[in-house]
Amino acid sequence: MKKKADILIIGSGAAGLFCALQLPRDKKIVIISKDDAEHSDSFLAQGGICVLKSEDDYDSYFEDTMRAGHYENRKESVDIMIRSSRKIIDDLILYGVDFENDHGSLIFTREGGHSTPRILFHEDATGKEITGRLLRAVRALDNVSVYEHMTMIDLITEHNTCFGVVVADGSGAVSPIRADYTVLACGGLGGLYEHTTNFKHMTGDALAIALKHGIEVENIDYIQIHPTTLYSQKPGRRFLISESVRGEGAVLLNKAGDRFVNELLPRDVLTEKVYEQMKKDDMPYVRLSLEPIPEEEITGHFPNIYRRCLEEGYDVTKEPIPVVPAQHYFMGGIWVDSDSRTSMRQLYAVGETSCNGVHGANRLASNSLLESLVFAKRAARHISDHYVHISREPRIETEQYADPDGIREEYRRIVLDEVERARERRKGKKKKGQKENE
């Protein structure tokens, strides 16, 4: 393993891979992945990726994003994301991403919270299509090395400057990797929750490490619950039933078989309605019916959902399926500016690990892949345009990391405790605001 890189990227999801692809080819880049490189949450994204269809759609897209985020979004970031979207799609097509099209004309679908169809997709496995193409492109580069089953356990820092990271391999052996620039693209924190659509190794380590080093975080308590995952009593990750299914006409049913809600409400609002109905019905789930969708569209547009449900004993072309909300996405994270710079020098953060303010208090469907790619590209551009070699190498005492498992467990506690404190602070502010308005 290389002990020194020009640029070190922590994470092999769409954000980390796209960042690597945008960096100069004369730079030595190292990517480390906590699990197999293919085991990133980016591979799991089903629905699609948003794009600004035309200038006429700008105001609507901007408002849809702001409204879903309860107007807590950073407007500058939302504007950057939307304005950059078409170029990102062009980049992806050049990497071979096969978006659904009709004789060359891209096909758009609609999801909850969107006022018009503006989402590109590849069947019901858009994340796998995009991230798989990016990973193949990265593996073809001579200047990039990808190391799997390697876990970041700390940053190497001095005087608020990052000099790389300390990692533990699958055997627990600890070593430093030094770099001029470090990019955190570690994903979210779904692995901390019992019911989640995320891979279980996504445990928010980067957040704990950021808190440890006094790096600024933002909205760490903004954790999105997806309203429709396949109900199961089996342990492990929950299977997502894409929002696109509801966008194409699927309806939610109560215990009596009656529709009880507008399925295209923003995710947080719809999740509340589902929980309310579960309580009324005294049931651990509600049902989702795909009956309004033609069978050929189900098997063509949603083949993976169709197959997975069959494996669980449900034929979605003939019967409703049980669905339940589960943790899905993290809107908060390590604070970054519009170029993905953290509050620590030489350290960037992109993707779900970061908080650039695009999503506000609640993510609009299918904005996550776009946001990750837009700001990963901006990070790469900023690093390239301002590159400075760092000759200093602070000394690292690796003995302090002799128990990586214990460190990771401590990080879990740090993150969960901080999420709870942030929630309490937010509740306190709300109560104070209510009293002042009385």
Descriptive overview:
The protein is an alpha/beta fold and 438 residues long. The chain has eleven helices and 18 strands. The protein is globular. The N and C termini lie far apart (62 Å). The model has no long low-confidence stretch (mean pLDDT 93).
* Low-confidence spans: none
Radius of gyration: 22 Å
What share of the residues does DSSP label as strand, in percent? 15-25%
Helix-strand topology string: EHEEHHEEEHEEEEHEEHEHEHHEEEEHH
Count of individual beta strands: 18
Large-scale geometry: globular
| Largest sheet descriptor | 7 strands, mixed
**Class derived from helix and strand content:** alpha/beta
Mean pLDDT over the full residue set:
93
Number of helices: 11
Could you give the distance between the termini? 62 Å
- Fraction of residues in helix: 25-40%
Oligomer: single chain
